[in-house]
Each structure stands twice: as structure tokens, then as C-alpha cells.
Design a protein that fits this description.
The protein has helices at 7-10, 18-26, 28-41, 64-95, 103-106, 109-124, 129-140, 156-161; strands spanning 45-46, 55-56. The termini are far apart. The chain contains eight helices and two strands.
Length: 174
């Protein structure tokens, strides 16, 4: 006897897919830097291993500087390490007694590791692209982002439900 499952049994929202969990595991070092930032400023947070974000438990009491520090620390850390290793790669090239034309052919293999490790750190810094957008919004927009606001965002559909159209003053369509 063959048993089949319908869509309600196979699409369980409480059990994330393998790719979703894999993406969460890929971001763990990034989120650990966020946790380090929370611990440095001594603010409470919530994080479960493999989640996509660290949740602030005291968001309303954080100042804008604290929010920027928490948001930008992972990018600054990974980009700083990447630039440091690239700097080591360039500086150590001056001490190797090989002509520049022969460097890629006869250069030591350990020397290329500086470039590779630096490139990996810079590539991993791209996990902070959403944090950079959030930092931009914190700095240059006066209103809060919708995902930062504890109150639900009101849109024109809310006014329609109250019986008034957003473009008229008396509730009638023109």
C-alpha cells in the first residue's frame, strides 16, 4: 500500500528546508560578531544557532550610535581582516627577491595564501550588505524602517477599510 501526502503535510512552516538552514549556518560567523557587539555594549539579545539574525531585546533603549555599532561591526571586522591580509601580500612582495615579471611563475606558494585569505574575508564581508542598507537608513532617513518599528505600518488600505478613500476628504470617489 502506497501512502501519499498532500501539500498541507509536506509544506510544514515550522520545519525549515535544508537550504534555509544551510544559509543560516553560513551566516553564523557574521551573527557571532553581532553578538560580540551586543556584549561589548552590554545589551540583551536573543539568538538561536543557525538563525538569520540576532534579535535585540532592548531595541527601544538603544541609541543611534549603539545601533550603528551593532549593525556595522561585522562588515568592519571582515573587511578589515581582508584588507590587512591584502596589505601583508603587497608588503611582503617587496621583500621577495624575484623580478616582477617572474613573480607569478617563481613566487612562493605561501605568499599567495595572503591574497587568497584576504579575498575570502572580503567576499564574506558581503554578508553584511543588508546591514549596510540598514545603517544607511539609520543615518539618513528620519523615519524608522518598517522592520525596526514595533507598530504596524499604516497604508492606504487601512483608510479604505474605514470607509474613506485616501485621495478625498469626504470619503466619496471623484
Amino acid at each position: 500500500m502506497i501512502q501519499t501526502m498532500n501539500n498541507s503535510q509536506t509544506n510544514k512552516p515550522n520545519q525549515p528546508t535544508f537550504l534555509y538552514r544551510l544559509g543560516g549556518y553560513y551566516g553564523i560567523p557574521h551573527e557571532l560578531i553581532h553578538i560580540l557587539a551586543y556584549r561589548i555594549i552590554r545589551k540583551p539579545y536573543s539568538y538561536q544557532w543557525g538563525d538569520y539574525q540576532v534579535i535585540s531585546l532592548a531595541y527601544e533603549t538603544e541609541t543611534q550610535r549603539e545601533k550603528l555599532f551593532i549593525t556595522l561591526l561585522p562588515f568592519a571586522t571582515f573587511m578589515g581582516f581582508g584588507l590587512f591580509f591584502h596589505f601583508l601580500w603587497v608588503i611582503s612582495a617587496f621583500f621577495i627577491k624575484i623580478r616582477p615579471e617572474q613573480y607569478f611563475i617563481d613566487g612562493p606558494t605561501w605568499h599567495f595564501s595572503f591574497f587568497i585569505v584576504g579575498s575570502l574575508f572580503i567576499a564574506y564581508a558581503s554578508t553584511a550588505h543588508y546591514d549596510l542598507i540598514k545603517a544607511y537608513c539609520l543615518l539618513f532617513r528620519k523615519n524608522k524602517l518598517q522592520y525596526d518599528s514595533p507598530k504596524p505600518h499604516r497604508n492606504s488600505n487601512d483608510k479604505k477599510q474605514q470607509g474613506k478613500h485616501p485621495q478625498t476628504s469626504n470619503g466619496r470617489m471623484l
